[in-house]
Amino acid sequence: MADTTATATPDTVTTSDDGIRRRDFLDIAAVSAAGIGGLAVVFPLVSQMAPSKDVLAASSTEVDVSAIEPGQAIKAVFRKQPLFVKRLTPEEIAAANATPTGSLRDPQSLAERTKEGHADILVTMGVCTHLGCVPLGAAEGEVKGEFGGYFCPCHGSHYDTAGRIRKGPAPTNLEVPEYEFTSDTVIQVG
Ligand code: FES
Questions:
Q1: Which ligand 1 atom is the nearest neighbour of the CA of 132?
Q2: Could you give the dihedral angle defined by the CA atoms of residues 181, 184, 185 and 189, in that order, rounded to the nearest 10 degrees?
Q3: Which residue's CA is the closest to the ligand 1 atom numbered 3?
Q4: Residue numbers of the chain with a pLDDT score lower than 70
Q5: Which positions are catalytic?
Q6: Does the C-beta of 136 come closer than 6 Å to ligand 1?
Q7: In whole angstroms, what is the distance from residue 185 CA to residue 120 CA?
Q8: Any idea where the Rieske domain is (predicted)?
Q9: 152 close to ligand 1 (CB < 6 Angstrom)
Q10: Separation of alpha carbons 175 and 106, rounded Å
Q11: Pocket of ligand 1 contains residue 133 by CB under 6 Å
């Protein structure tokens, strides 16, 4: 590539009938070759950075929600972090929907945090958005806080039935990860 440019001496700079100088052609050829060389170098890097099938498999979690009773939650693991999957009762859904989103620190409706047709299934990370403790409320008998959802005992953050921050230092709602229903009863997270 560099040789090509080096051979472009003033002798080779000629003007053809259509006005394109020979020197222009050599410069373009040199740039094109450099571009191809650049691609050849970049491609292996990109392919090395792409996750392997093993990593992709480990990065998603499947959960069968059929056995979760209304008012119950299960703890799973997603990308090595706790994941809460909860089936809300009609009362918990009503409580979430009765809260004006405009009054919330991190305004989001329950509908925005669940999937259409599955408003009773709330999927959130079990990681407090303050400093990362695992909130209580997913297991039977655990404290659910003043708003009936989750309570982080580390510094007292209270989340409501939609996992939205209502009181305490946490800045945002419990994160809802990317997920989809792969059947009526199974979700795939990630
Ligand atoms: S880590 Fe949850 S309130 Fe601080």
A1: 1
A2: 0
A3: 155
A4: 1-58
A5: 155
A6: no
A7: 12
A8: 90-188
A9: yes
A10: 11
A11: yes
Which of 133, 165, 172, 174 should be mutated for ligand 1, with most atoms under 8 A from CB? 133
Q: Which two tokens stand for residue 84?
A: 């809460």
- Residue/partner pairs of 23-31 with CB below 8 Å, 24 or more apart: 29/4, 30/1, 30/4, 30/5
Q: Looking at ligand 1, which atom is closest to the CA of residue 128? A: 2
Atom number in ligand 1 closest to CA 131: 1
Question: How far is the centre of ligand 1, averaged over its atoms, from the C-alpha of 100 (Å)?
Answer: 24
Say what the pLDDT of residue 26 is: 44
Angle at 95 between CA 90 and CA 99, to 5 degrees: 145
Q: Is 131 close to ligand 1, i.e. is its CB under 6 Å away?
A: yes
Return the CATH number of the domain spanning residue range 56-189.
2.102.10.10
Coil, helix or strand at residue 10: helix
Q: Please state the domain extents for the chain.
A: 2-49, 56-189
Q: Is 115 helix (H, G, I), strand (E, B) or coil?
A: strand
Assess contact for 134 and 81: CB atoms under 8 A.
Answer: no
pLDDT at 2: 39
Distances (CA, A) of 68 to 45, 78, 84, 120, 138: 44, 18, 11, 11, 12
One-letter amino acid at 8 equals A
Q: Find out whether 188 and 121 touch, Cβ atoms under 8 Å.
A: no
Q: Which residues contact 133 (CB under 8 A, 6 or more apart)?
A: 127, 152, 153, 154, 155
